[in-house]
Write a structure and sequence with these properties.
CATH topology: Porin
Largest sheet: 8 strands, antiparallel, barrel
Number of strands: 9
Order of helices and strands: HHEEEEEEEEE
Number of helices: 2
CATH architecture: Beta Barrel
Length: 259
């Protein structure tokens, strides 16, 4: 069983290398497209040549549905947990096909009903809901289909960086001393590492409006770093000798104004 785990859970190093290769390919495609369409005869469709180029700025907000990917079999189960995200967004349209987006903001990740066991201060065992409060920054390369319509489909991918500033946990279990049910909240920031490097892929629709562009997106994010802090695993024996990676699916809406 355990010998098969590496095949079922590829290492973060292999995953990050694959993502880096894909990102490089996207970069070469972007460069080729810019060179091909920025000539003197290029035009965006309205005769000005500038309609689909330039800087955009706005805000994005959405909902994350997150889980942890954990190695091992026993004690490694988690359910999903909802969280919020809000970010400032800065976009630059290279041409009618392609653009670069930078996002910086706040995002909540986590997991629900994660197995919990501890002997710390008398101890308890049961399940817990974890919320990681992060500062997140994303660098995304997006490809837009320039349809003659009020909406334009687009696809995007890029690296994501998060800093865990606070982790809170709600525990539901049984006391090891009294055998009575216990419910309490605790700060577990030290249980998780502070930095996570990940990758994002997603798709969305851009709606051209009078004052700007409304963007509706769905995306998937996968963290490549092992977030379990082995120096503090005494507070949850269920994490001992296991790896933990973040993953989430997000639905979001953004509104950007051209500058």
């Amino acid at each position: 069983m355990f010998k098969a785990l590496p095949k079922l859970n590829p290492s973060a190093m292999k995953t990050s290398r694959l993502f880096a290769v894909l990102l490089c390919i996207c970069g070469f495609l972007a460069l080729g497209s810019v060179q091909a369409q920025d000539g003197p005869d290029s035009d965006s469709g309205d005769g000005s040549g500038n309609k689909d180029k330039g800087l955009e700025v706005g805000i994005r907000t959405g909902i994350n549905y997150s889980t942890f990917i954990m190695s091992g079999a026993d004690g490694a189960h988690t359910d999903g947990r909802a969280g919020l995200s809000v970010a400032g967004a800065l976009g630059y349209r290279l041409n009618q096909w392609m653009g670069v987006d930078v996002e910086v903001g706040f995002a909540q990740y986590g997991a629900g009903r994660m197995n919990y066991a501890s002997n710390f201060e008398g101890g308890s065992q049961g399940v817990k809901d974890v919320t990681l409060n992060n500062i997140e920054s994303n660098l995304l390369l997006d490809f837009k289909l320039p349809l003659i319509s009020v909406y334009k489909p687009r696809f995007y991918a890029g690296p994501s960086f998060t800093v865990n500033v606070n982790a809170t946990t709600r525990v539901e279990g049984t006391s090891n001393i009294s055998g009575m049910p216990v419910i309490y909240r605790v700060d577990e920031t030290n249980q998780y590492r502070g930095f996570d490097f990940g990758g994002i892929i997603g798709a969305g629709l851009d709606f051209d409006m009078k004052l700007g562009t409304l963007k509706i997106d769905a995306r998937y994010r996968r963290g490549f770093n092992n977030m379990a802090n082995k120096n503090f695993n005494y507070a949850n024996n269920a994490l001992e000798n296991r790896t933990l990676h973040t993953q989430n699916v997000s639905l979001s809406a953004a509104f950007l104004i051209g500058l």
